[in-house]
Amino acid sequence: MVRVVNLKNQVEEKQIMGKIRARRIKLDTPEKILKKDLDLYQEKSLQLGATDARIISARQVVVDPRVRLKCLVPRCHLYGETPNCPPYT
């Protein structure tokens, strides 16, 4: 099997993303910081080639119940450990 890596795209992506640093998700994050982060992600998505990017409420996202099974069988070591993973998805 031959794996083709497009280095030009990787370099461009790193330049666009800049120095975005991960932070722990807190329940008491100020609204101003959340808005700033979401605006940044929206802008970066468009720069990376998305045709549209919108900020929507988490309540508008529908997650198929089968997503949970993908992480449960075989059980992922992060299952239930992060807010991005089932069963919290």
How would you describe this protein?
With 89 residues, the chain is mainly alpha-helical. It has two domains: 8-55, no CATH class; 63-89, no CATH class. It is 39% helix and 0% strand. It is built from three helices and no strands. It is globular. It starts with 6 loop residues before the first helix and ends in a 17-residue tail after the last helix. The mean pLDDT is 80.
Q: How much is the radius of gyration in Å?
A: 17 Å
Structural class: mainly alpha
Percentage of residues assigned to helices:
25-40%
General shape: globular
Uncertain ranges: none
**Total count of domains:** 2
Order of helices and strands: HHH
Instruction: Please tally the helical runs, counting DSSP H or I stretches of 4 or more residues.
Output: 3
Report the sheet with the most strands, covering strand number, pairing sense and barrel closure.
Answer: none
Give the number of DSSP strands.
0
Mean pLDDT: 80
Protein name: DUF2284 domain-containing protein
InterPro entries: DUF2284_metal-binding (IPR019271)
Keywords:
89 residues; mainly alpha
Summarize it:
This protein is mostly helical and 89 residues long. The chain has helices at residues 7-17, 31-47, 66-72.
Detail the topology: elements first, then pairings.
Layout: H1 7-17, H2 31-47, H3 66-72
